[in-house]
Amino acid sequence: MNKYKIDRNINPNIFRGYDIRAVYGDDLTEDVAYTIGLSFGTYIQDRGYTKCLVGHDNRVSSIPLSDALIEGITSTGVDVKFLGLVTTPMYYFAQKHLEIDPGIMITASHNPKEYNGFKMAFDDFGNACGQMIQDFRTFTEACSFYSGDGKVENVDVREDYLNLIRSSISLGDRKIKAVIDAGNGTGSIIIKDVFDMFENIEYVPIFCDSDPDFPNHHPDPSVEKNNEALKKKVLEEKADIGIGIDGDGDRVGIIDNKGKMIFIDFYAIIIWRDIMSKVSNKNALFDVKCTKALADEIIRLGGNPVCYRTGNSYMRAKMREGNFAFGNELSGHVWFNDKWPNIDDGIYAGLRLIEVLSHTDKDIDGLLEGVNKYYSTPEIVIKSSDEEKFKVIEKVKSYCRMQEYKINDIDGVRAEFDNGWALVRASNTGPNITARFEGKTEEDVKEIENEFMSLLK
Prior knowledge:
This protein has 457 residues and is an alpha/beta fold. It has 14 helices and 21 strands. It has helices at 30-45, 62-74, 88-97, 131-142, 158-168, 191-196, 228-237, 264-275, 292-300, 312-322, 346-358, 364-367, 389-402, 442-456; strands at 20-23, 51-56, 79-85, 103-106, 115-121, 152-154, 176-181, 201-206, 241-245, 252-256, 261-262, 283-287, 304-308, 326-328, 334-336, 375-376, 380-383, 406-408, 413-417, 420-426, 432-439. The strands form 4 sheets. Strands 1-5-4-2-3-6 form a 6-stranded mixed sheet, sandwiched between helices. Strand 10 (252-256) and strand 11 (261-262) form a beta hairpin.
């Protein structure tokens, strides 16, 4: 007798912009996972697939959810290659290595421990996003599923993944000292093995033991307050760099040798300074949250800046579509597509900066010498219901058009001025509106922030 049952009343709000995500035991249960599995197995068969991948992060809820999900998928006749406990980049690697496009990674990324979710790929597009997920929701709600007897095979990609990293990093003569902080997330299962491969890196691990309660800090290195212990340890150890990894291993945060956080748009400047002369495609991809200093530098180096919408799924697809050599978004996702296969991997991203440092006598600050100076706010998060947030964005858009501002509306509204810019967008991962402002002077950024925050109030 099947221990799971079809849930015909799944909360539609868990089908979000990039994935399915909700609080485990509330809107995300084993029955919901089983139902998603039935739907997924049926859905990919309609696209001509008979097998898929499943992997999961280190959250307590990931094992019961994976059991239920796999039961649902195999009950439709689809075979599952089960990766077990892996980082999201290891899952992406497995898709390429095993040449299997459809799959589900069970993770809530950097969300609090009570959350979990499913990143889904239906075909060779990569992670589903936007309307694709809403179409899948409609399909799931119809509860018209195939029946069959699929098989489960356990697959271990760990050694092949490590070999790929080893072959993709070429260190110089300078020995680099690094502090690494996995935030007790899923990166903990592999990060020491990665750094052990490189004799020219002296590393000091903190919070690199897997613990799904995330007892030391929230596993999101893009938020500065989560990096306080990392900053302190870098200074204590007189390290050259601090590297923070998020909950599922696909995002990075960087601390320099002076204990200062280096935001990813500035990390991207260092990378472009290193690779621009080495790559043939000089189009440079970044998301709407990034500083104008990045676009300025890309142009100065002879490249063409391409500003695109925020979101792992959108950016990764755009990277492939445009065959970009490198791309980044402010949240800490970075994609290398030069000697690395377009996988956003926080650990690898940290190693690439170490690689740059190992070939120079400069520190990170020195690698950023001469960058144009702007004043930016951090990303500001404003609570708003999923129903209201898009209406608010439309009102801001209407205001900008009425003022005849120059806008980029590929993702929310980015209003461009001679003295700075304003970004207001709806979050695709939660009931929030996010905003960021930048100006040539502190007075400029304050004036722009005041104007737009008054609209949001």
